[in-house]
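Reviewers of the previous submission asked for a worked example of the structure-prediction workflow described in the proposal, so we include one complete record here. The input consisted solely of the amino acid sequence. No template or homolog information was supplied to the procedure at any stage.
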Amino acid sequence: MSTNRLITRSANVLAISGIALALGTAPAYAHVSAQPDEAEKGGYAKIAFRVPNEDPVAGTVQVKVTLPEQYPLSSVRTKPIPGWTAQVEKAQIPPVEVDGAQVTEAVRSITWTAQPGTRIGPDEFNEFEATLGALPDNADELLLPTTQTYDNGKVVEWNQPTPPGGEEPEHPAPTVKLVAAEEGGHSHGGTPSGTPEQASDQHGSSDETARYLGGAGLLVGALGLGVGAGALVRGRRSGGES
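From that input alone, the workflow returned the following structure tokens.
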């Protein structure tokens, strides 16, 4: 095989590989997590619980998130997901003041259950979204233990806290870091304060924009890789002809 032909084939492989990377599916995630992992104290946040399926043969059919009893959340709204039903469980609590109002009832858990014929299959993941608030202003993080149930009966508890500066445990609980609001009303990590509607609307648009820009950036990078490889081939050919 001639040198020019070898270079040409290598350039094609590089270009195709780059485009496949840009247009490929989302990466796999090792454990259940909360996205974004940072929110504003005292505000409302849209949180997506990202659930990967780690069993090679079974599928996930139920996801239950337990909310912290010591930090009662009076407002929890779930986003409809085709093929899944969401149940929000509430409980009576001693009267407390949350976001300027007396609250005697708080949400204790959210359970998403797959309808017949629906599941998260092997090598797949899904995201379960909810707006939560008002978030506590006297805590630095929210620990959100999550139970993942498979259609073969296996149950995985993602409920282990990660020690500060320590090694991540085998089954870490989804955690949202709570940060103080910046001056001027700007929020950390794109998590808005205000109402549940504002949290949902602002995060919906920012998530879509981020995904679009991320995909566009990867595609441009892949095309640049292909152009660079083509230039290399032309350069070698010109050198051989001179």
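Confidence is low (pLDDT under 50) at residues 13-29, 184-192, 202-223. We consider this example representative of the routine output the project will generate in years two and three.
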